[in-house]
Amino acid sequence: MGIVYDEKNKTISLHTKNTTYQMQVDRYGFLLHLYYGKRAEGCMDYLLTYYDRGFSGNPYEAGRDKTYSMDALPQEFPSLGTGDYRTPACIIRNADGTFSSDFRYESHSIKEGKYALKGLPAVYAESHEAQTLEILLTDRATGVQAVLLYGVLPEFDIITRSLRIINAGSGQIAVKKLAPACLDIVGGKYDFITFYGRHAMERNFQRLPIGHGISKIGSLRGTSSHQYNPAVIAADHETTEDAGACYGMAFVYSGGFQSEAGMDQYGQTRLLMGFSEEQFSYPLNPGEALQAPEVILSYSFQGLGQLSQNFHRCIRTHLCRGKYKEAVRPVLLNSWEASYFDFTGDSLLKLAKQAADLGIEMFVMDDGWFGKRDSETRGLGDWKVNEEKLGCTLGELIRRINDMGLKFGIWIEPEMVNEDSDLYRAHPDWALAIPGRMPNRSRHQLVLDFSRKEVVDSIYQQICSVLDQGNVEYIKWDMNRSLADIYSSAADCQGRVLHDYVLGLYDFLERIVERYPHILIEGCSGGGGRFDAGMLYYTPQIWCSDNTDPIDRLEIQYGTSFIYPVSSVGAHVSASPNHQTGRCTPLKTRGTVASAGTFGYELNLDKISEEEKDEIRKQIAEYKQNASLVQNGLYFRLTNPQTENTGAWEFVSEDRREALVQAVSIRQHGNMTVDYIKIKGLKENAMYRETGSGKLFNSTALREAGFPMPAEFGEYRAYQWHFILEDDGAR
Ligand code: GLA
């Protein structure tokens, strides 16, 4: 099956349907990386070149052989101290104060099924769907062990990597740097594709050549961040959406991270993904272990589109969990942009009633329902229903909303506390703060020390007692600031706090998921500030951005689509002019863009006309008709909205019999030139009927010559075409 050990050549090959990853235990016991690319059999150690490496060092046992240098050989798990001066995947401060590690192969085992990681999110699979490779490496001088884990999912063209550092020595060590994924590529020239941004403008696509030196992105914020997403791609300079080689890495982790890409002195490329090094120094006493989070890897030789589809399928079906993972999500109305903090129970019920009349299926009560929370400045930490504001109990409110035929959802932000709260007054030491320094405030709030179990337990109890008050079917789990002031009174070493915080968060989430398996959780962090594969294990959808402007969303959702499936992208229709940008857009455009995600509304229904209400009813009906294709179909990017006049994308059913193309015109000019959208993924040379016009089109012509954008008067027009296979006519 997937993993093959060749005793003669000492190679281990990880085969997926279309790709092969190969490594070799070499003559000195180093674990070298040989190949990751299109599926291939045989031994690829001919790729290793042994030339005189001049001043690059040689391991002692190489004797006078200057051709053997770790400074030039591609490796699976490079560390400091072996003579490799490139950026390492691992730095350990040993018990004797030194920083060298020299990991050599001891043994390996191959098992059916995919490994799981205790306390951490990870891709899962049935035992027949995956295999696991475990390789034990040891630093013989210190006894420190590295257990490398590889999960192979052949049908998905996915390989996962993780590792465990075990202190099998006799003194305390500290892990200073750890990157569970390292990819050394010996030849070729690559671009580093990353997704940068800011609050309300997340995951902008950036593609820059990997040159000599190191390009590094990451987050020092304790969360994966709005600023850089923990997913990267190395793509051959020539690679396009539809052709060429590319490698993707998605970190299944929601804390700080770093990804480095660099070309070495010999023109070889190294790509790393792992923990952020800043404020990280994880202590391990003898016998203790540090389990690194997992990285999902994929390779495509058919361009970025195929790479994205590999990630989408894996994340949607083998990382997301729960009853909603592949189900069409309920169409929701969220109260935030409708009324912010300014509501009463009656005004919520009125809004819910209006929502029900439009065909909306779930009502979400956002921030402001608890404690004395009527502004950003207070209340966080006091998860007690403000019955005075609601005019009734939560149970009563939910019952009345359920009676309207609506599900009920609620907003929480468990990791936070305002100084003006009963919780903070009772437990000021529960907030992260460094003794002798005043803490940084952000959005007037402090962060609770989730590295401490008693803090997590207490908030968990509070949240459960709210959720137990009625039929809650959805939670929006928010997190509205970055961590600062990293100090925990409970920690033996402050270098562990950031990671332990994330473990505390995951523990909390896991308990909620287990206790309330029927609840759909939507992640959020000021919009998309913690949009990562780690959160998607607990929350199958994430509020993509606080920016609901459909034109900005074209770019945000475009960048997001490189790794994350549409089923994970929270997207709502909001008011025009938009509350974040002031831009006016047609309701149809707002609906079209939001329908390319987990669809909902977020606006004051009092302020819309009867015609708009009718249009919303139609939008919902149409959305529901297409929702299964949208959430579970193959996703194709048809244009780049950052640089082109049109934003266009497409969903194609797995059997290629049906396709939905959506397009938005971004810039309008007099006497417009015509954009032709090249429609992809259909059966070759087959006839498809476009249901709106009833006309027949040839799929090859649609791909090669494209489909013309209409030249209608007016800004930001949206279009949608639905193609159904009519005749694939044995041509
Ligand atoms: C964050 C979220 C918003 C909203 C507010 C409430 O900004 O991203 O959607 O829930 O918090 O305070």
Automatic annotation (TrEMBL):
Gene3D superfamilies: Aldolase class I, alpha-galactosidase from lactobacil brevis, Golgi alpha-mannosidase II. It catalyses: Hydrolysis of terminal, non-reducing alpha-D-galactose residues in alpha-D-galactosides, including galactose oligosaccharides, galactomannans and galactolipids. Residues 29-284 form the Glycosyl hydrolase family 36 N-terminal domain. InterPro entries: Aldolase_TIM, Alpga-gal_N_sf, Alpha-glycosidase_related, GH, Glyco_hydro_27/36_CS, Glyco_hydro_36, Glyco_hydro_36_C, Glyco_hydro_36_N. Its EC number is 3.2.1.22. The keyword Hydrolase applies. Belongs to the glycosyl hydrolase. This is Alpha-galactosidase. The lineage of its organism: Bacteria, Bacillati, Bacillota, Clostridia, Eubacteriales.
